[in-house]
Write a structure and sequence with these properties.
Length: about 290
Amino acid sequence: MLIFAKDIGKRDHKHALEEKLPELKQYMEYQRKLFPYTVVRAGLDLAYKELDDIMDFIENGYRPSEDSSRREYPTDVFHWYKTRFPWSSAFMKMEEMHFALVVLIKAMDSFRTFEKPNAYHWAVLYDSSHNIIQVYNDLVRNNPGNSRDIHLSNSVEVNFDDFINNYWIDLDFMIFSQADYPHARHQERKSNVEEEIKDIMSEGVEPITALEKLDPPYQLDPNTIKLLKRDPVETQFLELKSAPDTGKEFINIYEEYIDDPQHGRMSVIDAEYIKNSEYMKAETPTS
């Protein structure tokens, strides 16, 4: 199983303050209607099917294979790849993303081990989750009966920005790039990393070298540096290392506590949900 910022297998968390804060309760009720594991898994399935169809199409001389169920094919497959998977295609070729999808699907189907994604995986997961959420939300709005076939939630649209805020550990693969969504939960780290890089560059250091000179807590792991440098992708970058399920993978957010200046002492996960509920409220248009 992939390690996200929260346990995607748990969807029934009850916030300690939701009975006192009506808007927070509404937010948590929305969270409990989501199926986070299914969002990720269905997104990977859709991405794999789409990419597999297009790669077969290319291999077959740009003709549909006889067993393909796809009705339409793009006239420019490489443009399709860049627009369909904008972040993944920025760092990986089709074949490399296809390999990453196989690795990620295998990890999602393993319930006895945990695997920690790196920047390459987060980019693929981001694109694939975005695409399936778009498909699902369109069904919820326009064809709710068919939305049950995907079943990413209990009949509510999935807020992609909030989903990323809650479940992505960081967005380091976006450093010095701009997303189409606020992702406020991750902006502080992203902005701080970018400022640190600029400070290092102001001393006459080349941009690529500056990436390697960051100190904690903004230090980037080797895979992220390779990704941002657009180094050729080696298979080892896309592999995942497995660790046994110890039951303690998320102990730091469920059993550790912090002091919130406004609400007092609370678990880390409750503090996270409060922050993300405020971000979602700020981004929701008022009527």
